[in-house]
Design a protein that fits this description.
alpha+beta; four-stranded antiparallel β-sheet; single chain; 232 residues; 8 helices
């Protein structure tokens, strides 16, 4: 399918990877791009494969995963609409995908040629600088995530995840809808599903949150963040 979907185009034009391109550059890139339809569980690319493309999620959810030697799945990242993956790999020599990507639900994903994009960057130093800024920002985010996953308790990791999804600049009350399953969230936060369920019950019993299926109601951001001051 050619990339002629109006909604997809509008979202992609606003994406940070493309905002710095001139209209002719963007049109050249879109001319060789495509939108893929993926069913839940469908593999988009596998770890170790040559990284010929990068992707932007248009609809649905895509999980970036690693597998242990025993076949245990570890979710590295969960991508929703507007988020991209594999863009950093295009700058490596002999690039291969460092993780696998799988559709967690029925999804539509825009696929772009890494070679074509790098050619665009060679024509625009300004775009190169914007890309470097984006990659640096993502690197700092990953460092913080590693810090949280290795130095903080399971409760603190969950609290930080919930707080990051609350509307900005408000104390509450607020409600968030979890797009992921509990098993996916547990994997992303490096805990067992039963541990996640136990922590959710504890937070609910204390009145910090209310759980209704995949909907979480948070009466107060300050009360939620106060948990980070406790040694849980």
């Amino acid at each position: 399918m050619t990339l002629n979907d109006t909604t997809a185009l509008a979202g992609i034009r606003a994406h940070h990877l493309f905002a710095g391109l001139s209209p002719p550059q963007l049109q050249r890139l879109l001319a060789t791009a495509s939108i893929e339809e993926a069913d839940a569980g469908q593999l988009l690319f596998d770890r170790g494969q040559p990284a010929m493309h990068f992707y932007v999620v248009v609809e649905g959810q895509v999980n970036l995963v690693l597998y242990s030697k025993a076949g245990e799945e570890k979710i590295v990242d969960i991508l929703g609409p507007g988020q991209s993956c594999a863009e950093a790999v295009m700058f490596m020599a002999g690039p291969v995908y460092p993780v696998s990507a799988m559709a967690a639900s029925r999804a539509r994903i825009a696929r772009f040629s890494s070679t074509d994009y790098v050619a665009m960057l060679r024509e625009s130093p300004e775009t190169c600088l914007r890309m470097l800024g984006h990659l640096s920002q993502r690197l700092h985010m990953r460092i913080r995530e590693i810090e949280y996953l290795t130095l903080e308790s399971a409760t603190h990791r969950l609290v930080r995840m919930i707080e990051s999804r609350l509307p900005a600049d408000t104390d509450g009350p607020a409600e968030i809808q979890l797009q992921e399953s509990r098993q996916e969230i547990a994997s992303r936060l490096s805990m067992k599903p039963e541990t996640l369920s136990r922590i959710l019950r504890t937070l609910s019993d204390s009145g910090t949150i209310s759980v209704h299926g995949r909907a979480l109601q948070v009466p107060s951001r300050r009360k939620l963040l106060a948990i980070l001051d406790t040694a849980v």
